Queue: 3 jobs
Job 1
Amino acid sequence: MYSDVSQAEANVTSFTGYNNISDSTANSLYARYFKIPMSPDKTSDYSSIGKALSMNMPSVDGVIPIKAEHGRGIISYKAGESTVNYTINFTAKQPRITSFNKIMTEKSGNAAGLTGYDDLGITYISGAAVNNDNGSIINSITLNGSSGTAVDARLWALANVHPSLVGASMFMMPAEQMVASGSYSRTNLTAEFFNFTAEYPCTVTVLLAQAATADSVYLTADSGWACVNNGDDMAGTVAAIGSETPQPPRTFNNFSEIGAIAYQWRAQGRSMGESNTYVKYRSGNPGLTEDLTSTHVDLSAKLKYVYQKSFDAGETINIYNPGSITNVEQTAVMPVMVQYYIPDSIAGKVIDEDFEEQVSTNPNYSIAGGWELDGTAGSDTGYSGSGEALCVGYAPGKTLTAGVEVTSEYYLPISYASQTGLVYFKFDFFKGEKTNNTKLYLSSSNQYNSSTNVELTDLSNTNTANCDIGVWYNIEILVDLDKNNYTLSVFNSDGSLKYEKTGEYNEETVRYISFGTTASNNWAGQYNISGYATKIDNFEVHTHYNQSLIDLQESGDNFTANAEFYSCSWKSNSYLILLAAYSSDGELLAIKDLEYLSPVALQDGKINQALSMPSVDNATKYKAFLWYDDRTPACSAEEIDL
């Protein structure tokens, strides 16, 4: 299977938390958890914060978790007396936090009983940080301040994790420092530990071995936090060291109570490495299935006090002291898990708003999508204009200040805010004399922030697009999140192109489009005067999952190219599938093609098309291609060498 390579790289679909490797001939399969770089303390994109260790752990059922956007599978084969290892490195983008602010200040060095060592603080691991495989570390690791090497091998690791928590991202807390006398955790009982924001809606779960105190935020009425387990044991589990039997496998999680068990595996001094005898207890024997004794672990804790709260994308998430931390280390075991809501469908027709009756506003626009209108925006009621429309910079009876930009935004629903594919805006635009400028902005932020806005153009008659007063135009904006660019087109009423502009769009998503309008000097401070208001109408937004692939299979004397691509909600796309046979010197011996015109569909639908060819005499290579109608590749070609 991997006879010709010792290491392979695999980029997989964004938000993939796990990969499976299946090979019945392998003698062993290990999952190596990726090592986050020691410097800097956090990645610039917040896919991780702090440091974490990498170590080999046996894979459960061939599953390789992706942590901090990386995962590694190691397959071992016996060849006589020799062992050959093959490695596959997986990379997949994960939901990320967008800001992090640490409040707690724990003691380090002598004050924490760690002479010569520095407190690491809080570690965040994106992706599938929480797994039910005895390999999810939940306390941040202490490092030698001078060398940066790990020195604390007393690792708290999760076992018997409730199914609803498996796959979560996680913040790891410095338990060893939190229990120290005089620590922040023990002297600031209701204080904030840290806060963060995330790019997607999420549910945060805080697990404790001891109940939070009554005055903590987790048990405060109207705080939004819910206690989902108030001390009920996970049925059929035993958190014991030696005396209590039987002990179930540490992968057992067939229970209804939300929670997990944490074991503090023994260390050999403060050295850390895979050759360490004690480390092998966790990864080898007793590992997942054998009984534990005090030889293997120092402490254990049932994390059966569980608190949860859900948050919107971009909302500040505050994590507080539960108030129950003492000098007993189990009380400081506090994994903070984050589970993101990733859209099932990221493409289709999002909205078609013609403003016939009134503007459709949505108070929950940051999640569900909708308009957030400036107070001076509203529906046109016939002021020297035409019919019903949205007046983005003027509402009758409202007073504006000359030269001050006001903004109205349309937010895409969070379920459509993808990091890949196309976003398409289409609307009619009418330039009125009541406004001076009308600028268009796009942003990936979930709230207005000029520093994150990308200005596309100014549609005013005296600026770049040069739209005349009193004339309707059609505006189209196409954003390609894979190519990081956009195209803005202005069409006259007869369909001819008036103005076009292309530019860079390097933000990860499109969350909203903003209409920034500035009042004209000749009417500021007045209202209900003659003249035109600036309007938009027939507003549409579409998104498109812009991925495709081609696969080539050999079956007997036939070769089949299987193409996969997606329909689009605003236009039809033409695809061309090609299957070709070549001789050993590269001569084209035969070729077949199939052209397919995808339908216009309200929602993106996956389309599969196949093209077959019988084997060709003297052919030594077959190649399959998938092209767009302009004969540019839609994806990489596939080939089979005979």
Job 2
Amino acid sequence: MDRAEKPQRALWAVFFINLAVSIAELVFGLISRSLALVSDGFHNLGDTVSLVVSLVAVNLASKKADSKRTFGYTRAEVIGGSINGLGLLVIAGVIVVQAIKRFFEPAEVIGDIMVIFGALGFVGNAVSTILLRKPSEDDLNVKGAYLHMFLDALHSLAVVIGGILVSMGIGYVDEILSILISALIVKSSVSLLRETFNILLEGMPKGLNMEKVKGCIKGVKGVEDVHDIHVWSISSKRHAISAHIVVKDQSVAETEALLHAIREELRKKCGISHATLQVEPVDVSCDTCSFNQHEEG
């Protein structure tokens, strides 16, 4: 099976489920005058658009490297995740604004319809969350879609609870639940955006630090020192490094064996699969280092 085929199948299935749920929630949310149900419907509709973004990104990420994109198109995954994260923030903002307005302009809400279609939304979003859970573990783009579905399931569950409480005559439940769900959306969105922006800014991969990387390299027998280290992520699961390795005078065969040992250490202990290493003798100063690097305190 093609690398992109499994995520694509899951995303297409979730797309159609989400589209059906969002239309039903919007129509009956307007009928029942439930802000929570309408906001959930718009949230689902926004997620349907985000699923299209995810599908495009998965398709692009599966393309092979060429002369113009020498690392391939795998960063489409990260870009897709960023778009989804930003989209979630916009949706959260719209929901909060509408909820605040309803505090000052209250409307009668039909609780029974809220419960029925909130439950429908919950089932649809729960199924979508289950379908995307496994693919989301290895792809930030799919993770963005997964977060959309997971938060939609929570929102739909809140709509059901809100409908029950409204039917019992408890006021402002609709508005309060909408704001609480928006807070959850913001928290998850910020977490996703931090991860994607770190990759786009070519920051240190999650779970690694400079001392750990240096330790992996300097722990290999034959390495005298290492400097000009740059570590970054090509995608959420593909990490790369460039570094200058200082060694004593030795043969080409010995150097090749040393570089092979360093690459194996980086792969096993740091999860770095792409290593570009430059060898320098101990008595020659580095005149090709591209950036000044500060030691960690």
Job 3
Amino acid sequence: MKKSMHLGLHEYFEEVDSRADLTEINHSIHMRNAEETYWKNQQEEAVLQEFDGHQGYLYFIDILLEDERHIPFEIDHADLHILYVLSDSGPIKLYNQDTHLLSKVANHRAQYLYLPPEDYHIALPPGKSTIFGFYFRASIFRDGNDTKYTFLHPLLDAYRSQSPLSKCSIDFRVGLITQLYIETLCRNLVAKQLHNESFILERLIRLIELSKQKIHEEYDHEDLYKNLIYKYINTIKAHVDLYGQNFSLQEVAEKMGFSESHMSHILKRQTGIPAKQYKDRFLLERCRKELLAYGRVGDAAERCGFSSVAAFSKFFKKHTGETPVAFRTDKTDRTQL
């Protein structure tokens, strides 16, 4: 996707050669295969990571400031943007060239924006700020598939009409699931590979779906148990996506502030399905994807967190009735028919 957002870090910082030139800051999450640049102005430092994908342009900023700073940026093509504030230092404020406040995103919250071509600046608070964002082609919403995303309708209308006026959605919480999704996306980026482009699109859609759910939970105030179960199931899936099998259900429950027995009881009562069965289902789905994407059983086993090919094969055959090699061979043969 063509880069259309140009952050003017050079207006305040000097670019340095490598991360070794920075003494105060490092990146919070490593964005695999991204272009990294490093910036410094005395004790104030920044790391910018950018990745150009076919379906979206992703960036991750870690920045340490002594005072509030206004960093300019330019938009040269209208797109839809989403901005995640992952830090505790204070709100991020966005202004247009007339210094009109467009958006204010608090700690651990996020917001969608439609930004037409213009000069803007972003006000960053003192302390360490961590920001993840991406902009993407709004054309992924077509043929009526945007019906359920009512929070995006004003932005989509502005994009389709190429409005000269900026728009922003309501903001929403960024919780554990969202952070895990972001980390999984960043850690698995591969440039110029077809299977990775489908992975990026899938992850971006998941984040958009998760945004819809977060807004629904926060503003619609539906059944609390239903929302808790949704969060528990999706946190299990997010852990599988990031760690494979290398986590316990107790860890997931504790991160949510509950005991494993409490969450398992609620889940079984509400869905009739044990938490372990959800974990195995999500893990099997990932095993299949890794086998098809990378081919070698050993690579798939390692990426899914198994200690050996034997353990991976035992799990796979238990849940499918066939070996990983047989599954991969069958799928390969079918694609060649």
